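Preliminary data (for renewal application), N-(5'-phosphopyridoxyl)-D-alanine complex.
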Amino acid sequence: MASTIRYIADADLGLKSVTDVFVNGDFIASDQATVSVFDRGFLLGDGVYEVIPVYAGRCFKLAGHLNRLKNSLAGVKMANPYKDQEWEALLDTLITRNGGGDQALYLQVSRGVAPRDHVFPEGVAPSVFMMTNPLQARSEQVKTQGIKAVTLADSRWQRCDIKAISLLPNSLLKQEAKEAGADEALLIRDGFMTEGSASNSYAVFDGVIYTAPKNNHILPGITRDVVLSLAKQAGIEVVEEAVSEARLVGADELWVSSSTKEVLPITTLNGQGVGLGKPGKVWQQIDALYQQQKRRHCDGS
Ligand code: PDD
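Predicted structure:
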């Protein structure tokens, strides 16, 4: 079991410099980090992950992310390797070692190193990997012009509520959207919109926000929770009901949300303008509140 693979050098990933990563208990320079080729994460995609935005050196909505991690681990019958306070301390160390500020933290827990077998190994310690990536600020263009989306059939499994590292279906869908000249795919299952390939999705009709309910067909997004609580705060009605594909063309607004992209307005769907063809009023209201909450987080309040 001594064989290891080297992570690709940071320069190949478009990162500016070598960062520190965390691998199985050690903080180490990313170009020195190794994992076993027998890791089930590598061989079977057998693991779960989280992506946590960091603003001003502090994790945003950490409790929500750690709670979802627990649910994902339970969903794949894996023990949580750390208590919340331990995760927090490790994440803080990684953030500090990588210079604080704004970052996108990635953490994954895989079932560990074992001879390849579909059946779970017994008595194997999970592998834990954490890295940081630059958090791209949204461009002015996205804010003023929105993004493009296409609808695609949701070809994923029946446990989309688990944040599993086996992302090939999501990756294929995102790639298909890209090849169609779009930024995101809105996924349709049994005639209804579930979510985006890497985001939750929303439609606005007559000032009311519609989003698919939390069930096994969507990832319970942490940003989605924030959006819904901001809507409540602003007195905007939210209906947690999936919108049919047929109704999407008549939506006043469409949005997607994720921890790294925040809330993004979709202004073109399948080549046609959405609503007035520009970011809508309800999105503007929610985005303003979201930015306010971020600023408060940065101020430490
Ligand atoms: N993805 N749904 C899917 C399928 C996702 O992949 C994501 C985020 C979300 C939004 O969840 P959250 O608001 O908690 O980020 C919904 C992350 C960012 C990723 O895989 O990189």
